[in-house]
Amino acid sequence: MVEGSAVAVDRTPAYVGTTFIETSLTDASTKCPASAKMVGRGTLMALAPGQGIFTHRYADGALRSYIALTKPEAWFRELDFGRPTAAMRRIAKEFEDWAPALLAMITHTDSAPIIRPIYALPIEHAWARTPGVTLVGDAAHLMSPFAGEGANLAIYDGAELARSLIENPGQIEAALSAYENALFPRSTVLAEQSASNHAQFFGFNSPASVVNLFSAHQV
């Protein structure tokens, strides 16, 4: 049996300093044509130190946006999201010198905004071996989304756990120990990458730092 509730850990996820506000807009080409044109048929990222807008266009023409701000959690708690229009206008003030088509991605939405503060476990997170149980996915290595590896890593964890169990028939503890011994260094590498990329996206040199980040991966 593999379950997280029985594993004793002495670390809890910590706020990384950035919160996403998720919004969506259907039929964007009609309701907000300038924004739809700016996004095009794919994904748009607009960045500056401490803030950003990430928008994706779906096949049905809807826009899904994530408005990012690097601020304390208390700042967001003070906003009244029971009055979503007013709350989003307040958030838009943080972007007041941005292009109107970008601001519209904040203020024009069909849905109630979803607040998504970003949390992460410590980069070198590990736990003591607990007989009969282990962790996979975010339970094992919660990190910010800026390495783009969360779902991939969770699937890989599951495959590696299965492989370890197959290779150690009837030896559950040996299988789980082998799995965790490989998991800890693997997740540390990606957690470091995620934390580094977060700093590149919202640090003082953004967006130039992000251009350099993507340019380094071009073939």
Keywords:
5 strands, disordered N terminus, 18% strand, alpha+beta, 9 helices, D-Amino Acid Oxidase, Chain A, domain 2, 2 domains, five-stranded antiparallel β-sheet, 219 residues
**Low-confidence blocks of residues:** 1-5
How many strands, what sense, and barrel or not for the largest sheet?
A: 5 strands, antiparallel
Using the 3D structure, state the CATH architecture of the largest domain.
2-Layer Sandwich
CATH topology of the largest domain: D-Amino Acid Oxidase, Chain A, domain 2
Shape by Cα distribution: elongated
Could you walk me through the main structural features you see in this protein, from its secondary elements to its overall organization?
The protein has 219 residues and is α+β, with helices and mostly antiparallel strands. The protein has 2 domains: 15-119, D-Amino Acid Oxidase, Chain A, domain 2, CATH 3.30.9.30; 137-213. The protein is built from 9 helices and 5 strands. The protein has helices at residues 28-31, 33-39, 73-77, 84-93, 100-107, 138-141, 150-167, 172-202, 208-215, and strands at residues 14-25, 43-48, 51-57, 63-70, 114-120. A 5-stranded antiparallel sheet has the order 2-3-4-1-5, covered by helices on one side.
